[in-house]
Write a structure and sequence with these properties.
With about 250 residues, the protein is of the alpha/beta class. It contains eight helices and nine strands. It has a single domain, classed as Vaccinia Virus protein VP39 (Rossmann fold, 3-Layer(aba) Sandwich), CATH 3.40.50. Helix content is about 35%, strand content about 25%. It has a seven-stranded mixed sheet with strand order 3-2-1-4-6-8-7, with helices on both faces. Strands 5-9 form a two-stranded antiparallel ribbon. Strand 1, helix 4 and strand 2 form a beta-alpha-beta unit. Helix 5 packs antiparallel against helix 8 and helix 6 packs parallel to helix 7.
Length: about 250
């Protein structure tokens, strides 16, 4: 049965709100204890590509409010539990705050800033993680409505994730990023093909019907970076004039 939303505020789009609360993935997220419907996008990607296995070390970029980290937590648990034993390591970064998730090491800050990357490097070292198995990025920029500008902002975030992954992934590791059709889409797909041996684009069923988002997965680095253990060099590379990204 659908739910009706009553509001006195003229600023609230009642039609959108009613559509949101009646969205089957929103309802399913509430039932399953996920913070957002985005968890089911990652679930589809995982089931289609076999991304996540116990024992892995994973980084969740643009993690707030935490649905992807919650899904990772359950997948890396021997019993698929939200609490208790964890087989692997989960790291998460976002400029926005995120409520704690057991077993997830969260760093609040701007991923392009050297001090944030340094904090991540330190967390990896403390846990004995020399390289990551998987980097996930559901980051999206603050959109301006100007096509060329927004395309550049999206490309910057993808390039950022690519640069980091090329230095911190295991040779057979994988990177998943969110892209939008149009703009620099073809150029970014080409960059993935230059970087990875396997590249595949998928639009999960959980993505909103009107959304142009696609998730691009690259697996198996063509060239293993010699900078994996050079945090200072990586930090210099990350310090660029990018637009802050947040999970949409």
């Amino acid at each position: 049965m659908g739910m009706k939303v009553k509001t006195q505020s003229k600023k609230v789009n009642k039609a959108w709100l009613n559509q949101h609360v009646n969205d089957p993935y929103v309802q399913l997220a509430h039932k399953d204890g996920y913070r957002a419907r985005a968890a089911y996008k990652l679930k589809e990607l995982d089931e289609a590509l076999g991304l996540i296995r116990p024992g892995q070390s994973v980084l969740d970029l643009g993690s707030a409010p935490g649905a992807w980290s919650q899904y990772l937590r359950r997948r890396l648990s021997p019993q698929g539990a939200a609490v208790g034993e964890l087989c692997g390591h989960i790291f998460a970064i976002d400029q926005q705050s995120m409520e704690p998730i057991e077993g997830v090491h969260f760093i609040q800050g701007d991923f392009r800033e050297p001090q944030v990357l340094s904090a991540l490097e330190q967390a990896l070292t403390q846990r004995g993680v020399a390289a990551l198995d998987l980097v996930l990025s559901d980051m999206a920029p603050n959109l301006s409505g100007v096509g060329a500008t927004d395309a550049a902002r999206i490309a910057d975030l993808v390039e950022l994730a690519l640069d980091f992954s090329s230095q911190h992934l295991k040779p057979q590791g994988a990177l998943v990023v969110k892209l939008f059709h149009g703009g620099a889409y073809d150029a970014l797909v080409a960059r993935f093909r230059q970087t990875f041996t396997q590249v595949k684009a998928i639009k999960p069923k959980a993505s909103r019907e009107k959304s142009s988002e696609t998730f691009l997965c690259g697996r198996g680095l063509k060239r293993v970076s010699q900078k994996c253990h050079a945090p200072n060099d990586a930090a210099t590379l990350m310090a660029s004039s990018l637009i802050p990204g947040v999970r949409a």
